[in-house]
Design goal:
transferase; ten-stranded mixed β-sheet; Rossmann fold; homoserine O-succinyltransferase activity; Homoserine O-succinyltransferase
Length: 312
Amino acid sequence: MPIRIPVQLPAQNVLLGENIFTMDMDRASSQEIRPLEVGILNLMPNKIETEVQLLRLLSNTPLQINVDFIRIDNQAPKNTPQSHMDAFYHEFSSVANKKYDGLIVTGAPLALLDYEDVKYWDNMTTILEWAQRHVNSTLYLCWAAHAAMYHFYGVTRQLREEKFSGVYQHNVNDPNNELLRGFDPTFSAPHSRYGHIDTSLYNGVEGLNVVAESDEVGAYIVASEDKRMVFVTGHPEYEAETLKDEYLRDLNSGQNPAIPKNYFTDNDPTKSPIVQWRSHGSLLFTNWLNYYVYQTTPYDLSQLAEKSQPKR
């Protein structure tokens, strides 16, 4: 949230120089406030688990948020009761005419498939294009981040033989970017993916900035200059046991997964995970909601401008 300060307070120029948002009392007294409208396109198979993870992060703000869960198609998910989908999820067609302040598109366990081989790829591209016209700022997570880069910019991921799995150290590249407000210069975040896009490919796209990255796993947070798109290649929403559950799932299915890096105490899967990413994950979502959504969205969503088409 912005700091409300007296008009012409000398500290204002200092704070603005550090890219800290302030609001003078004249503007604050005339500001109109309404609940934010946020959509969540949940592509994960265990819908309920992902809902809890995302809602926990979205709730860490004084802003009032109305949330719509959106489904990609009519197929029954394997790990979520159909009754849950019927009760709590919207068909895309039912919200296609609505405009949103923010949209979150989750990851999906589709790492080894070509995009065009994904059964709902046509639906996915329809929603990606729809978001350019109907959403003020979209946050793409993991697989969705790579899928959006491919669709909008023609940037193709590489598939690694060994999965990036674990908790990795990252560096803040742009400390004045509002998404990273309050971040330490180095911080931890979980990754779980085979796909990889070299940082140089992000840097080669006009209008995109790699604001945080890792020496081991590459670009982590990539933001468009107009704040309309944010690409996060990891999983800041993951809970303490999520990487452990994925590891045991793969192990029990007959695979030979590597032990997630920097995750288990003493690198021993029989011991408890070391949780060292929650604060920055929470801060990332709070900053996105505040600076990329709340501070930039029009009060009247019908006035939301269509985003210009990305340049390939």
